[in-house]
Design a protein that fits this description.
By secondary structure, the chain is mostly helical. It is built from 17 helices and 6 strands. This is Transcription factor domain-containing protein.
């Protein structure tokens, strides 16, 4: 719907969303008695979870129930507690199976697990999905991923591990163990250099460019068409994991046992965070060079096709860059190395470089033009950039 050119498409989108809400809630009154849910219904909920409905003359009951049952958490609970029904209709009398049911079921489980991992990581909340044997993660990382879905799953496992280690009750009370921070960076590095499929990796030959292996031999034409989108999404999710480590430490602090390890860890966090910012700026430039051409010949930005990953990560990094410059985080460290940060003739001042980076991240986020909530995102970014530029 966001990519159509029909007049009043936003009003039409709300109309279809309200129809979905009414149909979904009605279907649940039938299936809830036997704890089953149709695969079609769960797929629809996966697409519509957390959709923002405008206030209308819809029945208050629909609005109230929708606020309870059309959320991400409801989707996760239904996947955990309900039996997924592969038939066209629920009930024992239905014998017609849904098309490609097994493939769709696997894709739905992958989607919910991956989405939940990053959803919980961003919100610093423990997942409702129980943890499996921790040895499964080590086994997965050793074998590597074969395709895009495997690569996302590998990052999702890392995201869940970061949440458990850095957002535990002990970390909140006493600070984060420095070794857990280094362990998190090691896991991400292993994913980037070993687990991620070769054709989806970014090669860091220079800190100013993002180069990838363009060996697409053996891939289908459809995969080759979307391979740049897969790359961009994976890179953005990796950057997000790196920045979330900084966010956890900023919120809970580091546990200081009287050794130099806490100071070493603080220095590494700043290095990894600034490196992630520098990489994301390079990725933004790379995204500009690789739009996807649709069948009608129209080009569309990768950001417009994956706003949850690309737009939101760019927006988050833009806010972090502005707030870091405004609040002057790590003042003692910058004082220690102040002479090295002073620009020479013809070089930009570090604050000017960060302002330009924030603007580029903002402009990249703005490329999600087909999504209505982009306007609100840009308004928040513009306020922060204005404060930084004042």
């Amino acid at each position: 719907m966001p990519f159509t050119t029909v007049p009043d498409k936003w009003d039409l989108q709300q109309h279809f969303a309200r129809d979905f809400r009414a149909a979904f809630l009605k279907a649940q009154t039938v299936s809830s008695n036997d704890s089953t849910a149709r695969l079609d219904d769960l797929e629809a909920l996966a697409l519509m979870a957390n959709f923002e409905y405008e206030k209308t003359d819809s029945p208050p009951l629909h609005s109230n129930l929708g606020g309870l049952f059309l959320r991400h958490e409801s989707l996760v609970m239904m996947m955990l507690q309900y039996r997924v029904q592969d038939r066209v209709f629920t009930g024992p009398s239905s014998s017609v199976m849904l098309s490609r049911a097994r493939e769709r079921r696997v894709l739905l489980h992958w989607h919910v697990y991956g989405l939940d991992a990053f959803h919980c990581l961003d919100r610093k909340q423990i997942s409702l999905i129980p943890d499996t044997d921790p040895r499964d993660e080590d086994s997965f990382s050793q074998h590597g991923a074969r395709d895009f879905l495997d690569a996302v799953l590998g990052l999702a496992v890392i995201a869940r591990k970061l949440l458990l280690q850095l957002c535990s009750n002990a970390a909140k009370r006493h600070g984060i163990e420095p070794n857990d921070v280094h362990d998190g960076y090691a896991r991400i590095s292993q994913w980037r250099n070993s687990t991620c499929p070769t054709h989806l990796r970014r090669c860091e030959r220079s800190p100013e460019i993002v180069a990838t292996s363009d060996n697409n031999t053996g891939h289908s034409a459809e995969l080759q068409r979307h391979i740049h989108l897969h790359r961009a999404v994976l890179w953005a999710l990796e950057i997000n994991c790196l920045m979330q480590i900084e966010s956890f430490v900023s919120d809970f602090g580091l546990r200081d046992n009287g050794s130099l390890l806490a100071e070493v860890t603080t220095a590494r966090i700043e290095y990894e965070s600034l490196r992630a910012l520098n990489d994301m700026v390079a990725i933004c430039r790379w995204i500009d060079e690789h739009p996807i051409c649709e069948e009608d010949g129209k080009q569309r930005s990768l950001v417009d096709l994956a706003p949850l990953a690309l737009r939101n990560v760019c927006a988050g990094l833009c806010l972090w860059t502005c707030q870091r410059s405004i609040s002057s985080q790590f003042p003692s460290m910058r004082a220690s190395f102040g002479r090295r940060l002073m620009p020479t003739d013809g070089q930009k001042h570090p604050s000017q470089a960060q302002l330009e980076s924030a603007r580029l991240l903002r402009e990249t986020a703005a490329k999600a033009t087909s999504h209505r909530d982009t306007v609100g995102v840009l308004e928040r970014l513009d306020k922060q950039i204005a404060l930084l530029d004042s």
